[in-house]
Amino acid sequence: MSRSELRQGFDAETEDPGWKSLYRVGGITALIMVVFPLAEVAISFLPGVAGLSQGTVTVLDWFTLFQNHWFLALRNLGLLNIIGAAFLAPTILAIYSALRRDHGAYGAFGTILFFVGLAVYLASSRAFPMLSLSRQYAVAITDAQRALLAAAGQAMLAEGQSRAGIPLIEFACLVISAVMLRGRVFSKATACAGILGNALLIVVEIFATFVGGLPNVGFVIAICGGLSLMIWYLLVGRRLLQLGRT
Q1: C-alpha distances in Å from residue 22, one per residue of 16, 91, 158, 192, 208
Q2: What 8-state DSSP symbol labels residue 125?
Q3: DSSP 164
Q4: Can you give the residue ranges of every domain in the chain?
Q5: Among residues 136, 86, 31, which one has the least CA distance to residue 78?
Q6: Are 36 and 83 in contact (CB under 8 A)?
Q7: pTM over 0.70
Q8: What is the rounded CA–CA span in Å between residue 148 and residue 139?
Q9: What is the pLDDT of residues 173-222, one digit of tens each?
Q10: Closest CA to 183 of 89, 114, 110
Q11: CB–CB of 146/181 below 8 Å?
C-alpha cells in the first residue's frame, strides 16, 4: 500500500461509522459486479440458448419465449444489465464518499451523472413490461384482447430496447475514474483501469448507435473494455473494503 493510501486509511478510522458501512457495502457490490459479465458469457454458451434467442422475431415469438423460458427472455432484454447497474449504485456512492474530501465537486458531478443515467436506463427498459404483457396474453380470453396485447407488445418492439442511459452511466464512471487519478485515495492502476474500460465501452456504444452494429474491431474493443472494467471492479472493491475495515 502506498503512503498516500496508508494516510487515507488512517483518515478512514475517524470516519463516521455510517460511512465505513457504506464503504463495506460498496466494496462488496463492486466485487459482485465481476460476476455479471461472466454470467452473461456463460448463459450465451448454454445449449439451445442461441437458437431460442435467434427465433424471437415477432411479438408472438417473444410472448412464447416469456411463457416457456421467462428468465432467458428477460436476459435477452437486458435483465443482467439492469441488475448490474442497480448493484453499481452503492459502489458509486462509496467512491464519492472516499473522494469527497479532495475532489468533492467533481466527484459529485460524476455521481449525479451516474444516477441520471441509471434512471433513464431503468425507465426505458422493455424487459418487465414485456413480461407483464406476455402473462396477460396467456390468460386472455377473446381474440380482441389478444390482438390488443399483441399490438402493445409490437409497439414496444418497434421502439427498441433503448440503451439511452448506458452511455451516460459509462461517461459518469469515466469522470469518476479521472477524479480517482487526481486523488490520493485510489491507486493510479485503479483509475487507469476505469478510464480505459469506460472509454472503450463508450466507443462501442458509438459504433452500435451510428454504424448500426459492431464490426469485428468493435467486438475486440468491447472485450478489452469489459476486461478493463472487471479489473476496475476488483481494485475498487478491494480498496473500499480496506477503507471500511475497522
Answers
A1: 10, 8, 41, 24, 35
A2: -
A3: T
A4: 3-55+81-122+166-241
A5: 86
A6: yes
A7: yes
A8: 13
A9: 999 999 998 888 899 999 999 999 999 999 888 877 776 555 677 788 88
A10: 110
A11: no
